[in-house]
Design a protein that fits this description.
globular; 2-enoyl-CoA Hydratase, Chain A, domain 1; three-stranded parallel β-sheet; Lyase 2-enoyl-coa Hydratase, Chain  A, domain 2; six-stranded mixed β-sheet; 16% strand; 10 helices; alpha/beta
Length: 254
């Protein structure tokens, strides 16, 4: 059985996570699950890393889900089955995650993509759930996230038909922010470096405010936003940002 790996590299303040199991379309086996969870924790604790990009090795697949061979070997299915642990997702995480999606992002790979904050896809991407095709419910937070992203009606269609969307279809549905053709990873890295140039605290707070706004009442969401914005103006980052603007230079946020 093919053994995969998960690699962590860095480019300045950007972490790059590579799912490295190309012979299996970067399906995630048990050792990869453990390593991926450890990498998330490492990124969260490393103050030098401000944003992360998740990619699949080989350029032909982002992640085709969990390793079925591994699940069968472990006796995961049937009345006495142990169940299938989900692929670890970067949630909750204060730092933004960008999914760079080439090729397949199916099943657990679809769930992983939905758990990221931004998604850049290629036109050749194939994105969608696979639970019903395998006789299971598409769990791993997929249904909850998908419904919030695209609405109940479109989520029903994607889930009940077990649809695989192309890159353009995913963008039209609201599942991807950009279709980048053959420059998926380049565009994801450009976005990552842009975000990494901002104040880490203000990025983290902005991300949290967006997440909270999805479930708070409008009144509560506005009140929280006002509190955080008022605090932001009292921080050194605000002083640096406005000074840099006045002096016509690039700010150096810490």
């Amino acid at each position: 059985m093919s053994m995969g790996d998960v690699l962590l590299t860095r480019q300045e303040h950007v972490a790059v996570i590579t799912l490295d199991n190309p012979e299996k379309h970067n399906a995630v086996d048990a050792p990869m699950r453990e390593k991926l969870a450890a990498i998330y924790q490492c990124i969260e604790e490393d103050e030098g890393l401000r944003v992360a990009v998740i990619r699949g090795a080989g350029g032909k697949s982002f992640c085709a889900g969990g390793s079925i061979d591994s699940y069968l070997e472990q006796g995961a299915f049937g009345p006495q089955g142990t169940g299938v642990p989900p692929i670890p997702r970067p949630w909750p995480a204060s730092k933004p995650y960008i999914a760079a999606i080439n090729g397949y992002a199916l099943g657990g790979g679809f769930a992983l993509a939905l758990a990221c904050d931004l998604r850049v896809v290629g036109e050749s991407a194939r994105i969608g759930p696979s639970g019903l095709k395998r006789g299971t419910v598409q769990g791993a937070q997929t249904i909850s996230r998908l419904t919030r992203l695209v609405g109940m009606s479109r989520a029903m269609q994607i889930l009940l038909l077990s649809r695989e969307l192309t890159g353009s279809e995913a963008a039209m549905a609201g599942l991807a922010e950009l279709v980048a053709d053959d420059m998926v990873e380049r565009q994801a890295m450009e976005w990552a470096h842009t975000i990494a140039g901002f104040s880490p605290w203000t990025v983290a707070m902005t991300k949290q405010l967006v997440i909270d706004a999805a479930h708070l009442s409008l009144e509560d969401a506005i009140a929280q936003e006002d509190r955080v914005a008022a605090e932001a103006y009292r921080r050194d980052d605000a002083l640096e940002g406005f000074r840099a603007f006045a002096e016509r230079r690039k700010p150096a946020f810490k």
